[in-house]
Amino acid sequence: MSQDRRDILKLVAVPLVVGAAAALAGPAHAQALSRTTLSIQGNKFLINGAPTFSDRSYLGKSIEGLLFNSRMANGVVDDQNPSTRGTWAYADGQWDPERNTNELIAALPAYKARGLNAIGVNLQGGSPQGYSWNQPWHLSGFSSEGVLRPDYKTRTARLIEAADALGMVVNLGLFYVSAKPALDGEVAVIRAVDEATAFLCEGGYRNVLVEITNELDLPSWRLDLVRPARCHELIQRVQRNSMGRIANPAGRLLVSSSFTRTMPSDEYFAAADYVLLHGNGITPPDRLREHIRSRKANPAYRGQPLLINEDDHFDFDQPNNNMVASIGEFCSWGYFDYRMSREGYINGFQSLPVDWTINSPRKRGFFDLLAQVTGSSPG
């Protein structure tokens, strides 16, 4: 038996269900102060025991129980690569990860006022140039051994707590396929998952969804443990390790992983608390409708909420677009905005450095439609 395999077995052998005394040690004060408890009932998301957007419909389609979200993948990142760090300089100063997170936090009330009730961030970030074949930057919040960086923990905690105060949800991703430094094998993957789980449990965070792997069906993923055939193992691990440690109806963290085009396995449908889809590359809107319907039609689907947490299609002024299509199929929809060729600083919520304000035509188009859909009045 290889040493790597022995190390994996040692990690798996760690007790997975903690006792009540351990569960209350540390996070009790955080749980007492938490204002926002996310839960799942059937195919709906609930906040503080009530479905989101109760009794609200749009174009004759109910939106009760949906999460409208925006991909803010780089909301807590830093770049540890000195050769690329300067790329993200602001017009008025050098790159600053604390400024980046603080400005996102400052923008949350404006998002909430327009009906956004969730944001998505990733501990390994996402391409700061939208779509990049070569990604030399080092944005990962984990070391190659799977250790969660303290500065990432601090920024992520600040963001989760700010969202909690506003009644908002954070979909927290752990792994991104092009992140550097890469995790060094399955032992590092397991350690990273366990450290992230411990961080969330110690904080007692009740407004968090956990997305273990972003786009796990991409062929560039090299570690079998995060790929489609075995992704359910990590979902179940987080569920077990957090059991009894989160004061929500499930008593644990709510967990999933996201797919692009591949049909998830039966084991994924059996394990995942919610089903994560992507709308990128799916056009026209009728194709997205079929994509959603095919997941619901799978015999292994258990009726969980469906959530698209990134879709780079817009046309918000048109009567038929991907956002409207998703709503019509009772699937939560997520806005993915990046800075396109020759666009300026104000564009893009994923492109570093980020202008987190609602000030570009594309951002305004999304938030104007969202306010209309949700009946929000930003004032």
What topology emerges from the helices and strands here?
Blueprint lengths: L2 H10 L7 H5 L3 H6 L4 E4 L2 E4 L2 E2 L5 E2 L2 E2 L6 E3 L10 H4 L11 H17 L4 E5 L27 H16 L3 E7 L9 H19 L4 E6 L17 H12 L11 E3 L9 H6 L3 E3 L7 H13 L8 E3 L13 H7 L5 E2 L25 H14 L5
Parallel strand pairs: 6-7, 6-13, 7-8, 8-9, 9-10, 11-12
Antiparallel strand pairs: 1-2, 2-3, 4-5
Task: Tell me what you see in this structure.
- With 379 residues, the protein is of the alpha/beta class.
- The chain has one domain (33-374): Glycosidases (TIM Barrel, Alpha-Beta Barrel), CATH 3.20.20.80.
- Helices cover 34% and strands 12% of the residues.
- The chain has helices at residues 3-12, 20-24, 28-33, 82-85, 97-113, 150-165, 185-203, 231-242, 266-271, 285-297, 322-328, 361-374, and strands at residues 38-41, 44-47, 50-51, 57-58, 61-62, 69-71, 118-122, 169-175, 208-213, 254-256, 275-277, 306-308, 334-335.
- A six-stranded parallel beta sheet has the order 10-9-8-7-6-13, with helices on one face.
- Strand 11, helix 10 (285-297) and strand 12 (306-308) form a beta-alpha-beta unit.
- Helix 5 (97-113) packs parallel to helix 6, helix 7 runs parallel beside helix 8 (231-242) and helix 10 (285-297) runs parallel beside helix 11 (322-328).
- The longest helix has 19 residues, at 185-203.
- The termini are far apart.
- Mean pLDDT is 92; it is low at 1-26.
